[in-house]
Each structure stands twice: as structure tokens, then as C-alpha cells.
Model the fold of this input.
Amino acid sequence: MEKYYIGFDAGTQSVKVAVYDLEMNCLAEKVSPTHLYYPQAGWVEMNVDEYLSAAKEGIKSCVQQLKEKGLNPDNIRAIFGDGIICGIAGVDENNNAVTPYINYLDSRTQEDAENISQKNLSVWAEESGNPKPNCMFPAMTARWILKNNENFKKYGTKFVHNAPYILSHLAGLKSCDAFIDWGTMSGWGLGFNVYKKEWSQKQLDILEIDKKYMPKIVKPWDIIGGLTKEMADFTGLKEGTPICAGAGDTMQSMLGCGLIEKNMAADVAGTCAMFCVSTDGIKPELSSAETGLIFNSGTLENTYFYWGFIRTGGLALRWFRDNICDKAGDDSYFDLLSEKAEEVPAGSKGVLFLPYLTGGNNKAPDACGCFVNITMDTDQKTLWRSVLEGIGYDYMGVTDIYRKGGVDLNQITITEGGSKSRLWNQIKSDMINTKVKTLKNSGGAVLTNILTAAYAVGDIPDLKEKLASLLETKDIYTPDLKNTDYYRKIYTLRKKMISEEMREAFSTLKEIR
Done:
């Protein structure tokens, strides 16, 4: 009997559902867009039921595609999904959402995070590896919901992430069965012990979050239930199909990049551009308030990694395509933009893009997105290259921190959508001054979801070994040292401009907004 597996990736911009076999052949695929809402400045919300609907429709579509190919969907052995690690919604006792889904793009808790940071508590870094609160942490969002959301005050029973929300509904679970895998747990930023894989009562007390609202912690490959008859009838799958606990998108992307051992580096070029390095645990030199890095537990046992991020990295690319170029939904336009931008020299003729479309950073909390240094000869291709470089300059800041902490960055692996651009990969190689590698099998998180699903039902005996066998190199990019030196000079000037010279202007612009 053929063996198939369903994997889905519930990301910020879309829900991707796919069916693979054990030879890693993609047999069916469906991608559905998701929507962001901006109720007021600094707020970003989504609808977690949109995620559920997209996943159900995606599974239904994939089943139909299998049938059209003469393949039997009854051979699907398990379902495994990943979702956003920094994003939560509140649910009632029936496991239905009673709040919006608030993710890492939201900044409403910025002031609260700063106030708690002033306590300078050591327990954060000691237990979670994260030295200070951050407005993107679900721990901070939970505090806000508890204080401000009237629906949750009346009906709320648990906080859940988007992938567990989908998986639990496929299995017909109530909120009393709410779960979270140990990797996604670490996406809370605070409130847990990363080594013990449990919620920290000490931290939750400080955060004023009652432990009763927290889901139980499970392993990613645990089977949490089977597909209900209702869901089976809707999707065309067999009733009782095993549903796995799932994992965090970042964790699964790390596996897809080959970060299965310590001292490896990867760039997850997704909506939130993330630069990650694997370690064997908390490193005090990296878990300090000054670094701005986030520490997480991986999907596999005893794996850990740090990541620096640009919250609107990939989102800035979509914003430019949709809002500036008026090419919403046209993914091929990214290729056309990059093809034209190859004609633009390094440095984008002096044009700088600041990618802070949803708020600033620790050095400039009031910073906003903008283009500066535009002249009469500035055109679309120049602006596009400046967008890519704008994200790259922030990458330089992250990699400087890693190198200062003793991390070897002689090579990085790039995955997710951004890895498809030759120009983008070369710019990163030049700016970071390192060899860049892409992989032939670029399935990203969905592919690792398939493998973990197979492992969950015993069809793969050794997940790490199977992952290692798939890491075949596609392309290698090496830095142009002339460009590297140039970018370093501009980086120094840009850093001073943002953190010092423009602080007053950012404050004025905030008042105007």
C-alpha cells in the first residue's frame, strides 16, 4: 500500500496544504491567502477561523487532486501542521475563538513590555533564555487580553496558537484538551522553563497569567486524536485519520534548513525575516538584554536556537508589490522586480529603505517605514533593490551580535520563499560576508511536517537521519568583497542615522500619525 501524509503551514500570508509520499514527491498542493487587519496604529489582527477554513478547504482540494490522479486518499497516514509561534487567540470551553488572532506584527503591548523590563528580573533569562519582555511575545499579548478583552473575560478558557486550533478542530477536541508542543511553547518568549518543557509558575505569577489558561505541553509527534466524521465527510479523508500535535513554523523551517546539530546557521526568508543559529542550550553571551535575540527550543529533543529578526522582512516585500506596484497576488512580479534590480549597483544609488512598517526596534522604538535619499532618477527597480538592502542592513546588525558572541558564520542556509531570488541571495552573501547555500529540496516547513508525520506513525524510524539525507545543495553564493566593504561603510552611517540623528524626527512623525 502506498503511504501518503498531509502537512500544512499556517503562516502569516497564507495557509499551504500539501500531500507527499515517503519518497518526498509532492502529490497535491493548495495555497490559500490569509488577511491582516489593522484596527488602529500599531495593532495587527487576524481571524483564526480563517486559518481553520483555509486548512479544511486545502485538505479537501488535495484529496480531490489525489482522486483525479487515480490515487487513493485512504492511504493518507497522518496529518501534521505548523503555525506561528508568536501569535495567540483566546477560546471558550467549546474551543471556539472569542478573540482576534494577534501575532508578532502587533505592537500594542510595547509600553507594557517596557514597564516589565524595568524590573530587570533574572528569571526570564535563567528559565526561558529570553532576558526581557518583548511586545511580540504571546506572554505579553495574553496579559493584554486578560485586561482588555471583554469576550475573553466572560467566556475565555484557554490561549491557543493557530496550528493547534486547526488540529484540535479536525480532531473535535474541546478547550479542556487544548495542547501546545514544546517548541511552540518556547515561542511564548516568557512564562516557561525551556529545559524542563513546562510552564513556570514563578514567571506566570509575575506576568499575572493564571496557569489554568495555558494549554498542556506535548511532543510534536504525539497523536492528539483522530479526524472526526464531520471533518472526514467535508474533506473526503478517512474518519479516524491520525492527527499529530504539530509544531512551530520556525522550528520546522530550522529542520528544513538542516539545523539538526549545534553551531549551524540559517536564514528563514519568510514574512518575518529571521536569522537563526543552533546551540546546545542557553548561552549567557547571547541571552543578554543588549542582543535583542530570541531563544527557542527546537522540534527535536535537546535542540535549541537563537534568532534575530526583522518583523516585516518578507511582509515589506509583499507590501511593495501590492501597495506600490499594484500587483497584489502576482508572485511572478517578484521575479520581474529582481531581474530589473540586478541592473542597479550595490547601495541602490544612495536610496535607503527603513523596513519598520509596523514599528521600530530597541534602538529606535518610534521608527517607521520610509524611503530616504530619493532623487529625480529614482525608479521602481532602484526602490526594490533598496527594500532588499534595507532588510539586509538589519541582518548585518544581527550577524554582528552572533559573531561578537563567538558564533561561526562561515556559511548560512537560506530557505522559504526568499531563497528563490538569486539577487536577494547574493545581496545577503555580500552584506553578511559569508557563503550562502540554498537547497534543492525547498519544501521548507511543509516538507519537514510530512517527515514528522511519518515519524509519528512509525513509518520513519529516525527523523534526524531522514532529514540529513535530504539536504542536497542547489546553489552556492560567495561574497563580492568590494560590495561587502561598501555595505559595511553604509551600514555604519545608517545605524547612526537611525539610532541617533533621526530619533527626534521619528518622534515627530509618530505624533503626526
Observations:
- The chain has 18 helices and 24 strands.
- The chain has a mean pLDDT of 93.
- The CA atoms of residues 184 and 213 lie 16 Å apart.
